[in-house]
Each structure stands twice: as structure tokens, then as C-alpha cells.
Design brief:
The protein is mostly helical. It is 55% helix and 10% strand. Strands 10-9-11 form a 3-stranded antiparallel beta sheet. Strands 1-2 form a two-stranded antiparallel ribbon. Strands 3-4 form a two-stranded antiparallel ribbon. Strand 9 and strand 10 form a beta hairpin. It is found in: Cell membrane; Membrane.
């Protein structure tokens, strides 16, 4: 008879909820936000109206560095910090230092909705656009860092930035200095690092997807061969696998301790700090010390388990040998593991796809910026106030963070539940198949014609 009907109904209802969350995520999500930067309007560069403008230009990077020391510290560690300067999408990053009104009219970077500079007949009108803050006050030779235009003047010995005529670049009658730009750029770089951990993962997956699939394929073939070989030399394979794991753990402890000792003796280890740049951790001796301790603990636990359970392992080897004989009577049991493996792959793909779309839902949210660099907590509408001379609206984030987080938790729990259901399904089907072999009085006549299919239907009940 059927079992666990209430739990089955609850499971189906939960799956329907996951499907609804997925559909809404695909409808409202925009994965381009993870790859491309967002301008001050909350629009994604390189998409939609800005399809031909994939780069992000900062009007004045010096505004990104807070003068308040407390805010400056939080700027490097918090995603809530907002660089208050206007940010616009451009076709490509500037290649030389120029005043805002000195560049050709078709290369001026201006806010959306600003009159076309090329439609103005005199330079004074274009200068007024710059003075009113509608167009960039200056342009600096920049490089593309994750689609953001970051100035390239930091390797030079100059202190003030000048144009081709050796005139200081200014904004609001203040000279733009290398130190000011460097501070602002560091804040922007810190925000990029914090915001783009997921982006780096996605880019790595996108660049190496064929290697990942090849690895899955190799693992599948290796597992199949391992099962076949176990039929003849089960005991040898079990102990070889056990000793191989012990050897790898032992080598891992040795290697990590050697790296720790090298950094400790050289005295060149970098301080341990939390950062999204994972390459920093390999230069810290504390990282290698932690790996040494963790691997050492695993090695010790495994050795103790082997000493305590060696007799049970011998029993397990005998069971594996008997299982190998059962496989010869039910050959489809060799191929069946492919089915739960594919189901797990589908579940994982669905989880990742929905997660990516879900995290990129929400409408842009703006806060009021007063004077030059003070962003308040007052919400505003970009179209209403963004062209006032003393107050502007600054994009800060996408709305719905609390709701999105709850849906992510719901989706994550559902993924764990569904993944474990698939794993348990495969285990129960194989267990039922081998049980039909074990309890068959005559192995030639009493085993069902399709033992795996019969076990599958029995498991679903």
C-alpha cells in the first residue's frame, strides 16, 4: 500500500511553490546585472537603450572617497556604501586627460535626458552643461576594470592631473589630484570586489563549462569501471581506496605545513583579512596553518575509525563481493546510477538558474544626494529631482531585498529537499533490486524479470 501520503502531498505542494518562484524569477530577473555595471539611473550598461555603451564612467572619482574616517572604513567592507558621484554608460573609456567641454561634442558623457551637446552652436552652452552637472566635468586616461573606467595615473610621480596643454584638470574650482583619485578608485575597487564574487564564479563557470562537463563524464566512466572491477577484486579495491585516501590526506598535511613553514621563516606573509580576492589568502601563513590543522584532524579521525571498525570493513568487503554476483544477474543495476546522476544534474542546474535570476530581480531604488557628496536616507524618484542644481537622486540598490532573501531561503531549502529525494530514490531502488536477488530462493527463476523497474515502482509507492 501507499505510505507517507501527507508528506508526499506536502512535497508536491512545495515543488509547485518552487516552480512558481522559478517562473517569477525568469520573468522579472535580469542576469545582465551580475555581469555589467549599473548607472545612476539604475539602468544596466550594455543592454536595452545602452546596448552600445557597455562601460561605466564616473563623473568625479574623488567624490567616492568619504572625508569622514568612519564612512571611509565602512566603504571598504560594506555593500551599503554608495559612491555619490554621477555614473553614466559610455561606449569606451577615455584615452587622454581633457576638460569636460574640450572634448568633441559627440564624445561628451552626459546624463540621460540632457540635450544633445552637438545641437548646441556655441561652446559656452556646452560649458553650461558641464557646470550644471549634466555632463562629465573632466575625462582621464582610463583602463577597463570589469567594465568600469578607472584612471591609469597611479604609477606616475605627478601629484596634479593635467591635460595636453599642461593645464590642471579641475572640478568646482578644485584641482583633481592623484591622491584624491587613488582614494576614490580604491573605494570603487573594494565595492567591485564585494559585489562581484558571484560574477567571478559565473565567469569561471562560463569559461570552463566544457571542462566541468568533461570532469562529470570522466567521473561517471571511472565509477562504472570501479563497480565492474569490484566484482573480481572487491577486497583489494576497498583497501587500496582506503590507503589512497590516507596517503592523499597525509601528503596534504605535509604540503600545507611546508608552505606555512616557508612563509613563517621568510616573514613575508600578508595579514589575514576578509576579502573577495581569493588570491590574497595563498600568501597568508594563517591560511596554510588552518589547512594543516583541518587535514590533520580528518586524517586522525579516519585512522581511528579504521582501527575501530576494521572487522566491520571485512564484513563490508564480503557483502560487496556478494553484491557483485548479484550485478551479474541484474545487469541494468550497472546503468541505473546514470538516471539519478542526471536527475541530480537537472536539479542543480535549475537551482543555479533560478538563483541567478532571483538575485537580479527588483526595481532600482534612489536616495537623495545634497551638495557635493552627502547621500541621505531620503528616498526619491530619479525623474523628478535628478536635474535640480543642488539636489540629485543617486541609485543605491534594487528594491525587495528582504522578499528576495526569503524566496532564496525557500528555494535553497527546496533544493536540499529535492536533491536528497533524488539521492534517496536511487538508493532505495538499488536496495530493493538487491533485496529481490538476496531473498530469491532460486536465483534463476525467482528474481523478477525487471527487478530495477519493480523496485522503482515499489519505491514510489
Amino acid at each position: 500500500s501507499c505510505t507517507d501520503i501527507p508528506c508526499c502531498i506536502l512535497f508536491i505542494v512545495y515543488l509547485v511553490g518552487m516552480a512558481i518562484v522559478g517562473i517569477l524569477a525568469f520573468m522579472w530577473g535580469n542576469p545582465d546585472r551580475l555581469i555589467n555595471p549599473v548607472n545612476s539611473e539604475g539602468k544596466t550598461c550594455g543592454t536595452g537603450d545602452y546596448a552600445n555603451k557597455p562601460k561605466l564612467l564616473f563623473f568625479d572619482l574623488t567624490e567616492c572617497a568619504p572625508s569622514d574616517l568612519t564612512k571611509a572604513a565602512s566603504a571598504f567592507t560594506s555593500l551599503d556604501y554608495v559612491c555619490p558621484t554621477t555614473q553614466v554608460c559610455v561606449e569606451k573609456c577615455p584615452t587622454k586627460n581633457e576638460f569636460g567641454a574640450d572634448v568633441p561634442c559627440n564624445k561628451m558623457a552626459c546624463k540621460s535626458g540632457t540635450v544633445d551637446p552637438c545641437s548646441l552652436n556655441d561652446s559656452s552652452s556646452r560649458e553650461k552643461l558641464v557646470k550644471d552637472g549634466k555632463c562629465a566635468p573632466y575625462y582621464l586616461e582610463s583602463e577597463d576594470i570589469l567594465h568600469r573606467c578607472i584612471p591609469t595615473v597611479f604609477g606616475s610621480s605627478i601629484k596634479e592631473i593635467v591635460n595636453d596643454k599642461n593645464e590642471p584638470i579641475t572640478n568646482n574650482n578644485k584641482n583633481i589630484t592623484k591622491d584624491g583619485l587613488e582614494k576614490g578608485s580604491k573605494v570603487v575597487q573594494a565595492l567591485i570586489d564585494l559585489q562581484n564574487v558571484g560574477l567571478k564564479v559565473l565567469e569561471d563557470v562560463g569559461n570552463s563549462w566544457w571542462l566541468i562537463l568533461a570532469g562529470f563524464g570522466i567521473a561517471l566512466v571511472a565509477s562504472f569501471l570501479y563497480i565492474v572491477v569490484m566484482r573480481w577484486i572487491a577486497g583489494l579495491m576497498v583497501w587500496l581506496t582506503t590507503y589512497a585516501v590516507l596517503t592523499l590526506l597525509g601528503y596534504g598535511v605535509y604540503y600545507c605545513y611546508t608552505k606555512y613553514k616557508e612563509l613563517d621563516d621568510a616573514g613575508e606573509s600578508s595579514d589575514f583579512v576578509f576579502t573577495a580576492d581569493l588570491s590574497v589568502y595563498k600568501d597568508s601563513k594563517k591560511t596554510w596553518l588552518a589547512f594543516t590543522i583541518i587535514l590533520g584532524v580528518f586524517l586522525l579521525i579516519l585512522i581511528l575509525l579504521l582501527l575501530a571498525l576494521r572487522k566491520r570493513i571485512q564484513i563490508a568487503v564480503a557483502l560487496i563481493k556478494e553484491g557483485s554476483r548479484a550485478i551479474s544477474s541484474m545487469l541494468f543495476t550497472l546503468l541505473f546510477p546514470i538516471i539519478p546522476w542526471l536527475l541530480q544534474l537537472i536539479v542543480f542546474t535549475w537551482f543555479v538558474a533560478v538563483g541567478v535570476y532571483l538575485v537580479t530581480t527588483g526595481d532600482p531604488e534612489f536616495q537623495l544626494k545634497k551638495n557635493e557628496s552627502a547621500v541621505t536616507d531620503t528616498l526619491c524618484k530619479y525623474q523628478v529631482c535628478c536635474y535640480d542644481q543642488n539636489e540629485t537622486c543617486v541609485f543605491v540598490k534594487f528594491s525587495g531585498e528582504v522578499t528576495i532573501f526569503r524566496l532564496q531561503v525557500y528555494h535553497l531549502f527546496g533544493w536540499f529537499w529535492l536533491l536528497n529525494f533524488v539521492i534517496a530514490l536511487g538508493q532505495c531502488v538499488l536496495a530493493g533490486s538487491f533485496a529481490s536477488y538476496y531473498w530469491a530462493w532460486d536465483k534463476k527463476t525467482d528474481i523478477p524479470t525487471f527487478p530495477v523497474m519493480a523496485s522503482f515502482m515499489r519505491t514510489l509507492r
